[in-house]
């Protein structure tokens, strides 16, 4: 469905910038990230973890950690944003997204290390997720957040998302944005290429 070359995931790496211009690399998670990813979640503040998972957890349960590492499985993907800190590639943000092929929507959730919040990382990561959504042919991108999460709500509003009530849970709000961008206009180079090759392979595909 996704037409991604899962055996060569490294080609889908992007460089993003914080608001101050510091470079971040965004790539699919790899098996070697398992300890660092768990460390990242353990290091988040209680509040950030609560906002990310809508409940109190101190770390990723084993089964969920395993799910996070299985890129492409059931059209679900995890990306990490890393920075070189003191000579080490360090995870400073993560996002997980799923392509719902039946509705051609891409659902995502994300978090940014508390020390790096407020530097524009989530703004940049969400733009990158929009590129990924467009390349996969999604017509909408959406996320869900607790109504109490003013930061995420403000960020989604500034990023052009509209809000709708969650169908089943009054504590959550859904934010949604239409994706209507031609493959040649996708602003992330690697995803523009992916979309163009997908279009070439299947010219009738609506992207
Ligand atoms: C929500 C979250 C992802 C934002 O990440 P971030 O990298 O700090 O966001 P940005 O720096 O790109 O900020 C973008 C906008 O968010 C809003 N924002 C950021 N920090 C805020 C705060 N403390 N209070 C209110 N709004 C805030 C602002 O509108 C900001 O834009 P501005 O700086 O131009 O005013 C981050 O706070 C986080 O990881 N929270 C925990 C997990 C979570 O809530 N995930 C969302 C649900 S899946």
TrEMBL record:
Molecular function terms, GO-annotated: acyltransferase activity, transferring groups other than amino-acyl groups
Domain N-acetyltransferase: 24-180
Pfam families for the chain: Acetyltransf_1
Keyword Metal-binding: no
Transferase among keywords: yes
Domain of life: Bacteria
Keywords, ordered alphabetically: Transferase
InterPro entries for the chain: Acyl_CoA_acyltransferase, GNAT_dom
Name assigned to this protein: GNAT family N-acetyltransferase
Originating organism: Bradyrhizobium amphicarpaeae
């Amino acid at each position: 469905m996704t037409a991604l070359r899962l055996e060569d995931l490294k080609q889908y790496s992007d460089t993003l910038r914080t608001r101050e211009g510091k470079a971040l690399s965004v790539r699919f998670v790899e098996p070697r990230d398992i300890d660092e990813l768990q460390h990242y979640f353990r290091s988040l503040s209680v509040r950030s973890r609560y906002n990310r998972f809508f409940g109190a957890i101190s770390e990723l349960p084993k089964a969920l950690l395993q799910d996070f590492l299985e890129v492409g499985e059931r059209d679900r993907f995890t990306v990490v944003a890393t920075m070189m800190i003191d000579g080490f590639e360090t995870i400073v943000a993560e996002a997980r997204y799923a392509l719902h092929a039946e509705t051609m929507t891409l659902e995502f959730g994300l978090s940014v290390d508390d020390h790096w919040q407020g530097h524009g990382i989530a703004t940049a990561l969400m733009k990158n997720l929009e590129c990924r959504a467009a390349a996969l042919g999604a017509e909408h991108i959406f996320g869900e957040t607790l109504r109490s999460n003013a930061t995420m709500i403000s960020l989604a509003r500034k990023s052009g998302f509209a809000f709708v009530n969650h169908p089943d849970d009054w504590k959550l709000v859904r934010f949604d944005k239409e994706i209507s961008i031609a493959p040649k206009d996708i602003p992330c180079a690697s995803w523009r290429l992916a979309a163009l090759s997908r279009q070439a392979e299947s010219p009738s595909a609506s992207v």
